[in-house]
Amino acid sequence: MTAATQASQRAASGWLVLAFAGMAVLSLALATFLGVVDLPPSDVIAALAGHGSSEARSIILDIRLPRVVTGILAGIHFAVAGLLLQTITRNPLADPSLMGISQGAMLAVSGFLVFTVYVHDPGSNTLQALPLGWLPVIGTIGGMLAGGFIYAIAFRRDLGPLRITLCGIAVGAVLHAIGIGMIAGWGSARIEVLLEWFSGSLYARNWQHVVFLLPFTVAGLAILPLVRRPLALLRFEATVARSFGLSYRRQFSLALLIACVLAASAVGVVGPVVFVGLIVPHLARFIAGRRFDLVLPLTIALGAISVTLGDLVGRLLGQAEEIPIGVITAVCGVPVLVALLRRTA
Amino acid sequence: MLSCSGLSVSYGRRKALSDFSLSLAPGEIRALIGPNGSGKSTALQALAGLIRPAAGSAAIGDRAVASMSRREIARHLAFLPQQPVAPDEMTVEQLVRQGRFSHVGLFRSYGPRDDEAIRWALESTGLADFADRGLRELSGGERQRAWISAALAQEARILLLDEPTSFLDIGYQIEVLDLVYRLSRERGVGIVMAIHDLNQAMSICDRISLLEKGRLVFDGQAQALAESGLIEKVFRVEGRFVQLSPESAPHFDVHLSRWRAVTA
Is A9 domain-assigned? Predict the structure, then answer.
């Protein structure tokens, strides 16, 4: 390969990343300007600039914008976590909900809701008593615990990618069963909150959720350059990677930890938005082709785009009774997955 | 520069290697032979520090392999396992580039030194024109050469090869053996190679190690091995060594039962 073609390839790659970053910004704008309440674009701009009616300002600044930003952050979390898990387990189907992280968060949340309400006021049916503000923290802790538990089981014997995947599936299934059982047995008064949360939703997400997620996003993305080269080597079997000079165990653990933190915090805030973690990395790899350097930036951009647009579609289609983002990603995700499989097979 | 003594490895109950010793000088080619399951791969992996021995130790120079980080080891020693698998969509150049990880580490960008090493590794294996091809598009022989090329890009003084010629046709087999010879003589690389073909082993090596059920039963030159009568015993075959020409290594001629029937 000559230096000239290398340079032109690099330029083309740069433009591609820029184009997708532009699309992410565009989807952010689209999601801010469109919504259930029809606001003329001039009102939206005025509200963003701090003028306009107080109603428009409250819709844009307190409802739409925090919701969209939460979605962008969560989308990035799910997508990057999926990419990391698929890479280190060398399993193209790996995804936060396959590895038990989502189920851990789900069990923690349902346990928390059932438990606290009974402790607060046995027999109460008032939904105001539900301590919703705690859900992100509880969900994150639950997801992290499940991830840590799976890691510990896999670590005791041998840190094989297949073993860790199987552990994740098994533990996830058990946690899911316990969570469902808990809801069926004691959750009747809380079932609406639980259902909404379980289907993955951005409804009523506010700036507090953004403030909760942002440190995880910043820390997770900041550490990624450190694992860039190890990630390339983790795609080989352990013997080969170690022969090339990789401290396999340490790098595997670090990548798994980053994936767990990103996935658990996102599940804690928006619930398990399925398929984003599974499909976005595949889509990014498909677009990047052999330019492996592009996979990570494209995953980040596509994660943000897919959740933002998915939520917008859910809001517009459902109008007042909006469709949760998790349902949209699942419904749209399957055709995309099938299309990708047909292209790559 | 590479040595080990009293090396023992167990997989659960089974002892895969017991009391194995070896020393390798710069520019020396050492062949490792033995029947299937005799511990050749285990010995190589223990030398490369990839499995923890139950007893004994391996050392590069005077430093114990167990005390070195993976990156340090990889700068001194390149190991090519049997039938390695690469991610599907990788190109030859991307695979070979991984061989530079031990030099560039996590942060340092690839410099002219690294590009030079990659170019040399590709040229030595005749793959310069294949650099941008996907590994999946290659034939078995070309893929094996790509892996050897990645090991070469490490620019290590020690090279461990686990059956590098298996599954190659005779043309590629000889190509690999010639490359091994050039590396040892021109660059002073010390090479330990597990290999199944006895005659290739004896003609390429400076010294030879014979393993039987995890035990080292011979360590010396090919001529002495031919005279020891160990080959027939360890491999459970009948045959004899013949000298095809004065300067060539002894050649083992196996007796097949169909020929015995004819001569009897």
Answer: no
Distances (CA, A) of A302 to A54, A309, B24, B115, B191: 34, 10, 53, 33, 48
Evaluate whether residue A33 is within a structural domain. yes
Q: Cα separation of B129 and A224, whole Å?
A: 34
More confidently predicted of B24 and A186: B24
Rounded to 5 degrees, what are φ and ψ at B239? 175, -175
Q: Which two tokens stand for residue A183?
A: 């809801």
Q: What is the ipTM of this complex?
A: 0.89
Structure tokens at A306: 């897919």
Query: Which residues are paired to B32 by β-bridges?
Result: B194, B209
Looking at chain A, which residue has its C-alpha nearest residue B100? A244
Three-class secondary structure assignment of chain B: CEEEEEEEEEECCEEEEEEEEEEECCCCEEEEECCCCCCHHHHHHHHCCCCCCCEEEEEECCEEHHHCCHHHHHHHEEEECCCCCCCCCCEHHHHHHHCCHHHHCCCCCCCHHHHHHHHHHHHHCCCHHHCCCEHHHCCHHHHHHHHHHHHHHCCCCEEEEECCCCCCCHHHHHHHHHHHHHHHHHHCCEEEEECCCHHHHHHHCCEEEEEECCEEEEEECHHHHHHHCHHHHHHCCCEEEECCCCCCCCEEEECCHHHHHHHC
Cβ–Cβ contacts within 10 Å for residue B108, how many?
11
CATH code: domain of residue A258: 1.10.3470.10
Q: List, for residues B185-227, the tens digit of each pLDDT value.
A: 999 999 999 999 999 999 999 999 999 999 999 999 988 998 8
Residues in chain B within 8 Å Cβ distance of A243: 48, 50, 74, 78-81, 151
Write down all domains in chain B, each with its CATH number in brackets.
Answer: 2-263 (3.40.50.300)
Question: Is the minimum CB–CB distance between A10 and chain B shorter than 8 Å?
Answer: no
Distance CA B105, CA A44 (A): 49
pTM for this prediction? 0.87
- Output the pLDDT for position B263: 55
> How confident is the prediction for chain B on average, in pLDDT?
90
Please state, in angstroms and rounded to a whole number, the distance separating the CA atoms of residues A219 and A73: 12
| Contact between B124 and B179 (Cβ < 8 Å) | yes
Token digits of residue A229: 């080269």
Cα–Cα distance between A330 and B257 in angstroms, integer? 66
Between CA B130 and CA B148 the distance in angstroms is: 14
- Mean pLDDT over A123-141 rounds to 69
Q: Which of A83, A89, A244 to mutate to test the interface with B (most CBs of B within 10 A)?
A: A244
Return the residue of A nearest to B93 by Cα: A1
Nearest to A233 among B75, B79, B98 (CB): B98
Pairwise CB contact (< 8 Å): B132 & A1: yes
Taking residue A38's Cβ as centre, other Cβ atoms within 10 Å add up to 7
Identify the three-state secondary structure at position A245: coil
